[in-house]
TrEMBL record:
This is Thioredoxin domain-containing protein. PANTHER family: THIOREDOXIN, THIOREDOXIN H-TYPE-LIKE. Pfam families: Thioredoxin. Residues 1-113 form the Thioredoxin domain. InterPro entries: Thioredoxin-like_sf (IPR036249), Thioredoxin_domain (IPR013766), Thioredoxin_H-type-like (IPR050620). CDD domains: TRX_family.
Length: 115
């Protein structure tokens, strides 16, 4: 399992498969950030994602570079970046496309377990 408050950066398909398999079993909300290192909007969202990861230790955050993990990007039907896919137990529950930080925060909050 990843350390709380951290973003998991998957750089190989094998790493993605291993990490994703582990977190699917955890039942935690997972946010996958599909990004590109050369993309200005993607770079804009990185510090926002880092802050969310620190504030929300019960959420697991992934970073997927669309140029490196093309097969994973295709699996999730991502065509624009940044794209944020929210998952529970491996199933997509929501998606945010673009630099909509307020919408991302709202959707994360919406899908957190109710206490």
């Amino acid at each position: 399992m990843p350390e709380d408050g951290k973003i998991i950066n998957c750089e190989t398909v094998a790493s993605w498969n291993e990490q994703f398999h582990t977190v699917k079993a955890s039942k935690k909300l997972v946010v996958v950030n599909f990004t590109a290192s050369w993309c200005e909007p993607s770079r804009y969202m990185i510090p926002i994602l880092v802050e969310l990861a620190k504030k929300l230790p019960d959420v697991i955050f992934f970073k997927v570079d669309v140029d490196v993990l093309k097969t994973v990007t295709r699996e999730f039907d991502v065509e624009v970046w940044p794209t944020f896919i929210l998952l529970k137990q491996g199933y997509i529950v929501d998606r945010v496309v673009g630099t909509r930080k307020d919408e991302l925060q709202q959707k994360i909050t919406l899908h957190l377990p109710k206490v």
